[in-house]
Amino acid sequence: xxxxxxxxxxxxxFYGQAWTHEQRLHLFERMAxxxxxxxxxxxxxxLKHRTLWREPYTDAELRPLGDLVRACSERGxxxxxxLSPGLDIHFSDAAERERIETRFRQMQQLGVRHFALLFDxxxxxxxxxxxxxxxxxxxxxxxxxxxxxxxxxxxxAGARFLFCPTPYCDRMDGTQLGGEGYLDTVGELLHAxxxxxxxxxxxxxxxxxxxxxxxxxxxxxxxxxIWDNLFADDYDFSRCFCGPYSGxxxxxxxxxxxxxxxxxxxxxLNFVPLRTFAEYLHAEGEWRPRExxxxxxxxxxxxxxxxxxxxxxxxLTLLCDCFYLPRQEGPEAAAFLALVERLLAEPxxxxxxxxxxxxxxxxxxxxxxxxxxxxxxxxxxxxxxxxAWELKEELQVLAMVLAGKKAGYDIEKPGMLDQHHSGIFRRxxxxxxxxxxxxxxxxxxxxxxxx
Length: 451
Fold this sequence. Notes:
The protein is an alpha/beta fold. It has two domains: 7-287, Alpha-Beta Barrel (TIM Barrel), CATH 3.20.20; 313-414, Methane Monooxygenase Hydroxylase, Chain G, domain 1 (Up-down Bundle), CATH 1.20.58.240. 44% of the residues lie in helices and 10% in strands. The protein has 15 helices and ten strands. It has helices at 21-34, 59-74, 94-109, 128-133, 137-153, 170-174, 182-189, 210-220, 271-282, 289-300, 313-322, 331-345, 354-373, 378-406, 429-434, and strands at residues 7-12, 38-41, 78-83, 114-118, 161-164, 195-198, 225-228, 258-261, 437-439, 445-447. Helix 3 (94-109) links the parallel strand 3 and strand 4. The chain is globular.
């Protein structure tokens, strides 16, 4: 069981289409079932969360929010409301603080006790009036946040109040985003009761070492709360992440005030991330991510009932391995990639059984796609459809290339891929833009020569 003051749960903080009302209610049921205690409302899709933060919600907008707050309360889940005023706030204008208070009063009437002010993903500039009033951006943000926190603490003693800094990972801090000494200023000026959000070494952190958090804690003068983007896919809509919660040692929990995962935009694809994350928070002894992943995939399988032929567990495992984690394929997908690489590199007479293995795997994926189209759960199919379609199409291309190579054909001959017409498949403006620059695994840039 989580400690009462440890925030363990989900932040809906991604860019793109927000989850539906029904999906959020379903999420709360799942969270309560697996022992998570916090939902953080901060969807960028809500215009009044960020762009129109000064405008109060209408009664029609408040009603569904009130339903969410009540649903969380009934299940013992903290509801945190986040507001992101940093795009254009005038820090030295007292009227701006009153507008924040007005918004928080609206949410208070719905039963909200916990709040957050977010200053992430901003240009990091101060107006001329604010530069006259404050020595730094960090000082301006802390002044407003402290004032709102002090006002709220008089009404709700003991409520949680969170702050997201402009540099919210080690890399941003290293480039002095927000100004020199930003985090040290926050540590000095921000009220000690206010939690600070952090994503780790990177915006999307493969690993979060304990010692990196200990160094941050010294500077902030408090343990942070992790806003974990491990499963976030709003930066690349051709991907999703169905792998296990990993790269975080169990000892990390003791160095933090909480962990909140910001998961896939596609709500139905978050079963494995949510399950394994909850198990991580409650785990004792050794944490084995792959073992917990395989169990979670097996538990997810009943959701894949179809109108004709059921999906096999090995098919679902392969699919999830292909959409695993940001910098890691699952073992089966990694082996698949190695197989294709060998087939493309080796002469025909050195392939052995590799080609037959590829044919079998390709047939498995093609049949898997057909099974997905037959899912009873259409939301689940819609969440997978574009990614699964691209997977099976790319494998069809490889199958034709490898079959041609095996038969001794010139695979570069025009018309080799007659099922994928020129100007249609792998084309379009965005694809052509991507062809100009190649990024390697270390972030190095290579300009692709013009053909």
